[in-house]
Design brief:
The structure is a single chain. The chain has helices at residues 42-58, 76-87, 98-110, 152-158, 167-182, 199-206, 212-222, 227-234, 238-241, 244-258, 269-278, and strands at residues 2-8, 13-20, 25-33, 63-68, 93-94, 121-126, 131-136, 144-148, 192-195, 262-264, 288-289. It is globular and about 50 Å long. The chain is of the alpha/beta class. It contains eleven helices and eleven strands. Helix 4 crosses helix 10 (244-258) and helix 5 (167-182) packs across helix 10. The strands form two sheets. It has a six-stranded mixed β-sheet with strand order 10-9-6-7-8-11, sandwiched between helices.
Length: 290
């Protein structure tokens, strides 16, 4: 089955189309458009949303879901985009609960690897607006989820990163990330996987298993590098390159607080949401939400 998903965050709109089976998925289309979710950009976002819904259908998607960041809840822009999405034949724009997003991410990472893993394992999701973690048995909905409203974009803004970020700004960001993630009190797990839109860049910079020291070395290696430098060095999108320092900071905090290596990996949230919808018992009766 081919499914599509459009995610509207505060800084980027992303289209994903995937062919999903019972245990795996194949990415058909994945692209981002860096338009901030501001009422002044309503016409541009409306035209983009209409075009991306059409593109998803042309790629074979039998269903297209449109999701928005929680920060857009109750805004005039969200109401207008909801009308556009419904006019284009979808069920409108919805804001998925954080627990659902984390559970879908957990399944997207662990179900394709279920024969390779023993439980419990943890999956960390570094998004633009929030960082979340889920812990549980591979291939099943997690038993524990937690999130904090500190993602790569929000951390970049709160630490007031210049281009390039200054050392004192980096240290302020590290302190903020340590406080936020430390408050989650992550349960014990055998392995920690890390998903982020920049997972491949993070792996190139810090390695495939990232201890806290490796994340620190990664930060040191990009210190003084501008957004354009990072984009050219790693072949990253310019808008995404701006978020790399904060992504590495959050990775460092995860590794430092858990005392474990974190493993960057790709994730297919379209598949994860499909598998979560298939689950008959979500949330599990004993699932903890922090």
């Amino acid at each position: 089955m081919i499914l599509g998903e459009i995610q509207i965050s505060e800084c980027v709109t992303r289209l994903r189309v995937s062919e999903v089976s019972g245990v795996g998925s194949r990415r058909v289309l994945d692209r981002s458009s860096w338009i901030s979710a501001d009422i002044r950009n309503c016409e541009r976002l409306s035209a983009l949303l209409t075009a991306e819904i059409k593109a998803a259908r042309e790629a074979g998607a039998v269903r297209v879901e449109v999701a928005a960041a929680r920060a857009l809840r109750g805004t005039r822009l969200l109401r207008l985009l909801d009308r556009v999405a419904r006019t284009a034949g979808t069920d409108g724009v919805h804001i998925p609960p954080a627990a659902d997003t984390l559970a879908a991410g957990f399944l997207a990472v662990t179900r394709p690897r279920v024969t390779e893993l023993d439980g419990p394992v943890a999956v960390a999701l570094i998004g633009d607006e929030a960082t979340g973690l889920a812990v549980g048995t591979p291939g099943h909905p997690p038993e524990w989820v937690g999130s904090r409203p500190l993602g790569a974009a929000t951390l970049t803004d709160r630490a007031r990163f210049t281009d390039p970020p200054l050392p004192n700004q980096i240290e302020a960001a590290v302190n903020g990330a340590m406080r936020a993630i430390g408050s989650l009190a992550l349960p014990e797990s055998e392995r920690i996987f890390l998903t982020t839109p920049m997972w491949a860049t993070l792996e190139r910079l810090c390695g495939s298993t990232i201890q806290a020291a490796a994340a620190r070395r990664g930060l040191d290696s990009i210190l003084g590098q501008t957004e354009q430098d990072i984009a050219a060095w790693f072949g990253a999108e310019s808008g995404r390159a701006r978020l790399l320092p904060a992504t590495v900071v959050l990775t460092f905090a995860l590794a430092e607080l858990t005392g474990s290596a974190v493993e960057p990996c790709p994730v297919d949230p379209v598949a994860g949401r499909f598998w979560l919808a298939e689950s008959r018992h979500f949330p599990p009766a004993a699932m903890r939400v922090v």
